Amino acid sequence: MDLSWSHQPLTRRRTLAAATGLAAGALLPPGPALATAAQYTNPVIWQDFADIDIIRVGDTYYASASTMHYSPGAPVLRSYDLVNWEIAGHSVPVLDFGAKYDLNGARGYVRGIWASSLAYRPSNRTFYWLGQIDFARTYLYTATAVEGPWNRLTTISTPYYDAGLLVDTDDTLYVAYGNTTISVAQLSPDGRNQVRTQEVFRTPSSVGTLEGARFYKINGQYYIFLTRPANGQYILKSSSGPFGPYTMRQVLLDLRGPIPGGGVPHQGGLVRTQSGAWYYMAFVDAYPGGRVPALAPVTWTADGWPVVQLVDGAWGTTYPSPAVPTPPRQVTPMTGVDTFDGTTLKPRWEWNHNPDNTKWSVGDGLTLRTATVTHDLYWARNTLTHRIQGPTSTATVQLDHSAMRDGDRAGLALLRDSSAWIGLKRDGGATRVVMVTGLTMDSNWNTTGTGTEIASAPVSGGRVWLRANADIRPGAPRPGTFSYSTDGITFTRLGPAFSMGNDWRFFMGYRFALFNHATQALGGAVRVTRFEVSTP
User: Fold this and answer.
1) pLDDT tens, 439-480?
2) Does the predicted model carry a pTM greater than 0.85?
3) Contacts 24+ apart (CB under 8 A), 448-453
4) What is the DSSP letter of 373?
5) What pLDDT digit, counting tens, does each position of 322-333 carry?
6) What percent of the residues of the chain are helix, what percent strand, and what percent coil, each to the nearest 5?
7) Is 514 left (phi over 0), alpha (psi -120 to 50) or beta?
8) Residues 506 and 435: beta-carbon distance below 8 Å
9) Closest Cα partner for 223 from 267, 152, 166?
């Protein structure tokens, strides 16, 4: 993970203080591949998935990403062609790293799941997720299927900052990690303990900061893939084993990216297809929407260094689609309609901090019972978030508010460190639909504004439709607009456009967020019977 700003000299650690198992996949025999004349367009996913680690297991590709304070954490994406992706599950089921992740006396904003690593170990057919929390310690989770269940295997006292996990060809587990000073740790055969750690590389001052390690063994050589925040990518290579010595080469620097107004593609991972072709999946800083994945083919020099294939001197907007076997099925779209059927939330959803699981349910829609008495949405538990689809998309919510109580606030937000929402206020037995803006945080993620109501209208009956449209094209602050309907057909704009900021320091992009909190007493509830994200 990094600061995600093209000319930012501070490390993430200093900023916050102041305010793969690829080898296993590479050894799999090539499968039948299809020649294709099709092309794909970058970004391959226009949603907020940063600090990507990517692997292949058989004919399936998996990627992991950062989620900070959102729970469950560390989503696992799945694809059969490197272009079309679905969210399959989460490696960290609950952020049980302290009360602040429960919004209990403290808050975990911009903490939690940072750059972490996903690997697969063929010897026991197990997926491994590894990441450090709060500069304090490292956690390792395992599962035999990415959908879960994921269980914590161990806690290691060494915080492996921006870690890359390697399953070596002899089944040994190694971790590359660090900021500027890069180290390699060897784990015990069961992965529960650190056997050895050693500094293997110190970044030259002429380069500056390197972090975001990904660790590979390719053709007998060891590689540590590193990012220079947030405009470069470098690679270290060792012919003498995982502990080096390593030599360094620049992969890219100040490379023009595929998204107008966006940043330089960086901090991701390398993966090899079944037919032997290589690809680099990076992310592009694209605030206010976040950091979004882009894909480019990679070739190798005769002496074993990767080269990103460019289009007119830039990371291409389009490339020929990877030649892969025919996918066994279509992946599940990341947008569309959710009626909250079944017994669990679909993996596209993540809570703002850990939820109070006694205060929500699914089945006949999503029921959100008030879980917090507060005037501050940033302190309210059980706010449920959904990534915004770029470049523009619209969320529409059908809401049953008949069980709200006086003092309750419920609705649909554009949520970040500067937020706005459309929703319902119930006071004195009457319900109004309102647009509220001015919810803000400072650089230490303390609340500086709890919101100001700037438009309202009376509503009757027990149902209302709420709508938020978000333009998340990068390069400038962008508008978010709100509207409502009493019949689900005719929508009325409410309030002025909300300017979504594009500062990088919150790291995560804007999200659609469903919330219901009390300002007087608990006991009220709302039911979301339908949620839809649509694109033009």
Assistant:
1) 999 999 999 999 999 999 999 999 999 999 999 999 999 999
2) yes
3) 450/375, 450/376, 450/377, 451/377, 451/419, 451/420, 451/421, 453/425
4) B
5) 999 999 999 999
6) 5, 50, 50
7) beta
8) no
9) 166
